[in-house]
UniProtKB/TrEMBL annotation:
Its cofactor is FAD; (6R)-5,10-methylene-5,6,7,8-tetrahydrofolate. Belongs to the DNA photolyase class-1 family. The record marks 352, 405, 428 as: Electron transfer via tryptophanyl radical. InterPro entries: Crypto/Photolyase_FAD-like_sf (IPR036134), Crypto/Photolyase_N_sf (IPR036155), Cryptochr/Photolyase_FAD-bd (IPR005101), Cryptochrome/DNA_photolyase_1 (IPR002081), DNA_photolyase_1_CS_C (IPR018394), DNA_photolyase_N (IPR006050), Rossmann-like_a/b/a_fold (IPR014729). Residues 25-162 form the Photolyase/cryptochrome alpha/beta domain. This is Photolyase/cryptochrome alpha/beta domain-containing protein.
Length: 518
């Protein structure tokens, strides 16, 4: 069985035993990537259990540097998590709920540590939200069993998607492999189950005597994490200005976007120089915002309750948020994508180039293709990249440079503040044509045309490539080919490292040979 099926089966097997567990001295909510108090299903369920029994709710977060390594979590994302934890700790303290944070060196020790804490605190019930990556599902399945063996009850909830993975199937009972029919089914499912967009209240305040019982747990510090995931002072200052942390910021960002920009989203979303998208991916990734809140807030701006009617901008935006659900559903159904394998097995034999100097030029934003370089400098400068540019640089790496898409996927995870395995893997699969519902392999973005179409004035390029800031007119898209060679050379901007026409032909041959297609 797939890891989620296995976890679900174990939850069913242990259901009777879990129901029999009596609430002892405390109930625990284990935070992972759901770092908010509002509209958090697992936290709300834990709070209700504690409230009904009149015992304290304790929250726990375990920092594992090994987990950060294993997930290739970027330093900027680790920093964002730590800043968020500090805010979360304060918000919970205002409700007299402690957030106990501890560093666990080895990630495989997490289940044992949790059981130890539960026993130390006399806690009988553990609540958490489900994460859909393979290791996490396996770990949770193990922990549910361990809890049952120790006479404890662990409950695991679907929370991160609007529609839980597995809920939508084709007429023949299979997971959809194409987004459009899946999206129609997603919309119909939400319309039929409007409670999916209901909100979960923040937890109730711990009663005063309950607070006293757990008073010692308020004292713990939120640790700084491992040395190689720490930002320099200069980087920290810049990233903190771009990305204030915590759920209050997330809510504000969402409200502002819905107030000011969502109506124009369909028309403007593809232009990286216009700040026309929501930039809430960082909050959805850290769980400082729930997908339910996101879709509900957008829907409530519309004149209709229907997700696929009314204002075009709102519809378009909701359908983008749905892509996030789609890729998580895909991950649950085809977990082998977690193992470095392309979604389409027939794309396993492409002979990739491992040209180190090309890869370095791409990473550093020195390919000589201004739109690609601007985007790569944006990811380094902000920990973020505009969606159109993510597609451009992913196509450029996997097709123009014919470099293994997995190297780009990894680089993104190591640099993005919103790095999310399912969406990142899905995006790379789409652009390199090896993924689910991907671009056909023969559709190869022309970086020059993309640049002219989506950054017509060159403002995005000028912002991120200072060597070209004084280049005027159309030359900005191709300075060496369009009469700004002297200027570019003087400023130290490199010439194009490949010829797009040649590399396009090379990519077509390699994809055809690798997949045995004509
Ligand atoms: P908006 O345009 O405002 O969209 C709202 C939300 O919808 C986003 O925050 C995001 O949660 C979701 N969304 C939008 N587009 C997509 C999409 N194509 N796939 C999945 N979800 C989407 N997104 C990540 O969150 N993490 C990643 O690691 C990631 N890696 C990507 C890699 C590649 C190669 C590509 C092509 C796309 C990737 N995306 C990733 C999707 C998308 O680029 C970002 O979600 C988006 O740019 C975030 O900006 P925003 O919040 O302003 O988006």
């Amino acid at each position: 069985p797939r890891p989620m099926e296995r976890l679900t089966a174990i939850l069913e097997e242990t259901s009777a035993a879990r129901k029999k567990v009596k609430v002892k001295d405390a109930v625990v909510h284990w935070f992972k990537m759901d770092l908010r108090i509002t509209d958090n299903r697992g936290l709300w369920e834990a709070s209700e259990k504690a409230r009904e029994a009149g015992v304290p709710l304790i929250c726990i977060y375990l920092v594992s540097p090994q987990d950060f390594e294993a997930h290739l979590t970027s330093a900027v994302r680790v920093d964002f998590t730590i800043r968020t934890l500090r805010i979360l700790k304060e918000d919970l303290a205002a409700l007299d709920i402690p957030l106990y944070v501890e560093t666990v060196e080895k990630r495989k020790e997490i289940p044992d540590r949790i059981i130890e804490f539960m026993e130390e605190w006399g806690a009988s019930h553990l609540f958490t939200n489900m994460e859909y990556e393979v290791d996490e599902l396996r770990r949770e399945a193990k922990l549910v069993k361990m809890c049952t063996d120790h006479g404890l009850a662990m409950e695991v909830f679907h929370d991160t998607c609007v529609v839980p993975p597995g809920a939508l199937t084709t007429g023949s009972g299979k997971q959809y492999a194409v987004y459009t029919p899946w999206y129609r089914s997603w919309v119909a499912y939400v319309h039929a189950n409007p409670e999916l967009l209901a909100t979960f209240d923040p937890p109730s305040k711990n009663p005063p005597d309950a607070r006293d019982k757990v008073a010692a747990l308020f004292d713990c510090d939120v640790p700084d994490v491992s040395e190689n995931k720490t930002l320099s002072k200069e980087d920290a200052k810049r990233f903190h200005a771009f990305w204030p942390a915590g759920e209050h910021e997330a809510k504000g960002r969402l409200e502002r976007f819905c107030e000011e920009k969502i109506g124009q989203y369909a028309k403007r979303r593809n232009f990286p120089a216009q700040a026309a998208t929501s930039s809430i991916s960082v909050h959805l990734a850290a769980g400082t915002l729930s997908a339910r809140t996101t879709v509900r807030t957008a829907r409530d701006r519309n004149k209709t309750k229907k997700l696929d009617a009314g204002n075009e901008g709102i519809q378009a935006w909701i359908s983008e948020v749905a892509w996030r659900d789609f890729y998580k559903h895909v991950l649950v159904n085809w977990p082998y994508i977690c193992m470095n394998k392309p979604f389409k097995p027939e794309y396993s034999n492409i002979e990739w180039s491992y040209n180190a100097s090309h890869f370095k030029a791409w990473c550093e934003g020195r390919t000589g293709f201004p739109i690609v370089d601007a985007a790569m400098r944006q990811i380094r400068g902000m920990g973020y990249m505009h969606n159109r540019c993510r597609m451009i640089v992913a196509s450029f790496l996997s097709k123009d440079l014919l470099i293994d898409w997995r190297m780009g996927e990894r680089f993104f995870m190591e640099h993005l503040i919103d790095g999310d395995f399912a969406s990142n893997n899905g995006g790379w699969g789409f652009s390199s044509s090896v993924g689910i519902d991907a671009q056909p392999y023969f559709r190869i973005f022309n970086p020059l045309l993309q640049s002219e179409k989506f950054d017509p004035e060159g403002d995005y390029i000028r912002k991120w490539v200072p060597e070209l800031k004084d280049v005027r007119g159309k030359a900005i898209h191709d300075p060496y080919g369009r009469g700004a060679a002297e200027q570019a050379k003087k400023a130290g901007y490199p010439r194009a490292i490949v010829d797009h026409k040649d590399s396009r032909n090379r990519a077509l041959s390699a994809y055809k040979a690798g997949t045995g297609r004509d």
